């Protein structure tokens, strides 16, 4: 299942999508939790009683601003959360 966290406004669509099936197969010991400099990720129990990564509630309406430090203009060649997620479960829409 793909879980989408974020919002759409006049500036665009800002979503972080997490493929929960890939997240379950994580062999990186949930590296996304520590890779994000803002600490935006948490582990939750989903509707199927599986423990998967999710974007914390307080960040879901401000992703465009909270993720700016890691976007290419912030000096990163790739996003730390996506790079840390070895199964490839984390994607950004913008």
Structure characterization notes:
- The protein is of the alpha+beta class and 94 residues long.
- It has a single domain (2-92), classed as Alpha-Beta Plaits, CATH 3.30.70.
- 19% of the residues lie in helices and 31% in strands.
- The chain contains 4 helices and 5 strands.
- It has helices spanning 20-24, 32-35, 63-66, 80-84; strands at residues 2-9, 12-19, 41-45, 51-55, 90-92.
- The strands form 2 sheets. A 3-stranded antiparallel beta sheet has the order 1-2-5. A two-stranded antiparallel ribbon has the order 3-4.
- Strand 1 and strand 2 (12-19) form a beta hairpin.
- The longest helix has 5 residues, at 20-24.
- It is globular and about 35 Å long.
- The two termini are 20 Å apart.
- The model has no long low-confidence stretch (mean pLDDT 92).
| Count, helices | 4
CATH level-two architecture = 2-Layer Sandwich
- Content-based structural category: alpha+beta
Shape type: globular
Can you identify the CATH class? Alpha Beta
Distance from N terminus to C terminus (CA atoms, Å) equals 20 Å
What portion of the residues fall into strands of 2 or more residues?
25-35%
- The ordered string of helix (H) and strand (E) elements is EEHHEEHHE
Q: In order across it, which strands form the biggest sheet?
A: 1-2-5
- Sheet with the most strands, sense and barrel status: 3 strands, antiparallel
Portion of residues within helices: 10-25%
Low-confidence stretches: none
From the alpha-carbon coordinates, what is the Rg to the nearest angstrom? Answer: 13 Å
Counting structural domains, the number is 1
Q: Would you count the extended β strands for me?
A: 5
- Average of the residue pLDDT scores: 92
CATH fold group: Alpha-Beta Plaits
């Amino acid at each position: 299942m793909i879980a989408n966290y974020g919002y759409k406004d006049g500036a665009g669509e800002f979503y972080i999508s997490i493929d929960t099936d890939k997240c379950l197969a994580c062999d990186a010991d949930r590296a996304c939790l520590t890779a994000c400099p803002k600490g935006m990720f948490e582990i939750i129990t989903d509707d199927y009683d599986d423990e998967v990564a999710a974007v914390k509630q307080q960040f879901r309406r401000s992703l465009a601003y909270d993720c700016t430090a890691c976007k290419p203009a912030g000096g990163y060649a790739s996003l730390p959360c996506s790079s840390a997620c070895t199964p490839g479960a984390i994607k950004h829409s913008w």
